[in-house]
Automatic annotation (TrEMBL), chain A:
MF terms in GO: ATP binding
Keyword RNA-binding: no
Pfam families, per the entry: ABC_tran, NIL
SMART domains given in the database record: AAA, NIL
InterPro entries: AAA+_ATPase, ABC_transporter-like_ATP-bd, ABC_transporter-like_CS, ACT-like_dom_sf, MetN_ABC, MetN_ABC_transporter-like, NIL_domain, P-loop_NTPase
Lineage top rank: taxon: Bacteria
Name of the protein in question: Phosphate ABC transporter ATP-binding protein
Positions of the ABC transporter domain: 2-241
Keywords: Amino-acid transport, ATP-binding, Cell membrane, Membrane, Nucleotide-binding, Translocase, Transport
Automatic annotation (TrEMBL), chain B:
Entries under InterPro entries matching the protein: AA_ABC_Transporter_Permease, MetI-like, MetI-like_sf
Stated name of the protein: Methionine ABC transporter permease
The UniProt record lists the keyword Membrane: yes
Organism: Salimicrobium humidisoli
SUPFAM superfamilies cross-referenced by the UniProt entry: MetI-like
Organism taxonomic ancestry: Bacteria, Bacillati, Bacillota, Bacilli, Bacillales
Transmembrane annotation, as ranges: 20-43, 55-78, 84-108, 149-171, 191-213
Membrane topology category: Multi-pass membrane protein
Span of domain ABC transmembrane type-1: 16-210
Leader sequence residues: none
Annotated compartments: Cell membrane
Amino acid sequence: MIQFENVSKVYEHNGKELRAVDGVDISIEKGEIFGVIGFSGAGKSTLVRLVNLLEQPSGGNILVEGEDLSRLSKPGLRKMRKRIGMIFQHFNLLESKTVLHNVAFPLIISGTPKKKIKARVEEVLDFVGLTDKAHQYPEELSGGQKQRVGIARALITSPDILLCDEATSALDPETTKSILQLLKRVRDEYNLTILMITHEMNAVREVCDRVAVMENGRVIEQGSIFELFSNPQHPTTKNFIQSVMESDIPPSILSGIEERGGGRHVYRVTFVREKAAQPIFSQVAKNYQVEVNVLFGQITELQGIPFGQLVVELLGEDREIVRALDYIQRTVSVQEVEADAG
Amino acid sequence: MQVNILEFWPRILQAINETLIMVGVSLVVAALIGIPLGIALVVTRQGGLLQNNAFFKGLSVVINFFRSIPFIILLVAILPLTRFLVGTSIGTAAAVVPLVLFSGPYIARLVESSLLEVKPGVVEAAEAMGASPWQIILRVYVPEALSSIVLNLTIATIGLVGASAMAGFVGGGGLGDLAIAYGYQRFETDIMIVTVLLLVLIVQIVQTLGNVLSKKMRRQ
Ligand SMILES: Nc1ncnc2c1ncn2[C@@H]1O[C@H](COP(=O)(O)OP(=O)(O)O)[C@@H](O)[C@H]1O
Ligand SMILES: [Mg+2]
């Protein structure tokens, strides 16, 4: 459980103030995977680093498992940090040590007996699927394998919290997927709370329960993945969603619409939940004197719920089209597409 | 009149021995001083683990001071100190004092640059895991930089071989002294060539050993 209460971080930069994090309120539940998405420089990394006090907050409170870390003594803070695992974009492994030593590191610095360390390392390496790599060195591993080492190292102290700063941003799409699935398994099997920072909407969509969108240090929007995708409010949020939904109509289709001249009726229809499965358009074609021409579309699943967008053209008499639209709007959300919308 | 190299051989062996002792002892003492100072330079600087601006600046100025004095001047300037520390101002033992003062601060700078090569992210990861500053120094900085430190100590060692050649000034002996005393002052060209060749050989051996050891330290 992580709570941000009106948290700010101000940097002095050449006498000028830079509000890297500005009045952030977020409450992350136990066992939740919470994503923070934003463009580069939005303040995401600063936000995660405030959780384990790698950065001192300038204002507000941060509670981790109910504890305010900034009130702890130095040894108290170090003890608390052992309950907070962290993984990084560039893995940050000791290049001079084997996988085994890297994973064991948090236990070594805690003075855990060797025998115990060995057993525990075997356990976590097995969990991340790297048992056979124990005696290799980081430079002999692929990016995905290095991140698995990072995850094993973060898990070895059985933390309550896992912080991920762009954990998949240095990886190719295929490896990203497998690491995200691993993070999901971490949550499911250990009931960890995961705070995930990223600039990739795909990563968020894949595993997060809830997400906050950050811009200029502020959280501009937050909610469940589903809420955000089906009803984004802020232009930046819409931007991120478009980056994965490809909801922009390809130019070739747009120009095709223009060629047909005026009087065209093109709409973007957003489906959510079971409505995505409903044969709305076949009913429209049956009950009204219109033809439905699907120009472009994508259907996906968010948190197990079907979600999709279709771009359709309605062909027919204006009066019939208005009636058909009225019918469609009763079940799903519809937006008219302008010819110059592309 | 030429000296017979074969007859002269015991004198050369003795000089080799003196050079090795001077370089070896100075290196060990200078490293014992320079390595901790190099670490101190890294951890006390702005944004370091144990940031302390006053200490960092003071140490930096002192190190720069010693580094700016030419060795030959240092050698003479500290004669009283040498006499105080080793009881005499001439001989091999006496040569060790200026050599240490010359190479300790140099090693501090070399170690500093080695440690600065350690990726800040790795240090930060250790901090995030709850490691103490000492644990980070001993278990992150030093092992991660060890390979580079060994290479840099090799450079310092070769510097010491060169500097020790000048130690003849305080009667330190060694190969350099021999080359100057016989080769330069008495025109014994053979001896000069032999001693210079031996110095070249020593440098080659030191560098090769350093390279091998450095490579070993990349994976511990
Ligand atoms: N240590 C620092 N000193 C000064 N400015 C910083 C520091 N760390 C981050 N910043 C600034 O804070 C802002 C947010 O940075 P960051 O949290 O790294 O963003 P993100 O991770 O979203 O890309 C940026 O403008 C960055 O330049
Ligand atoms: Mg960042």
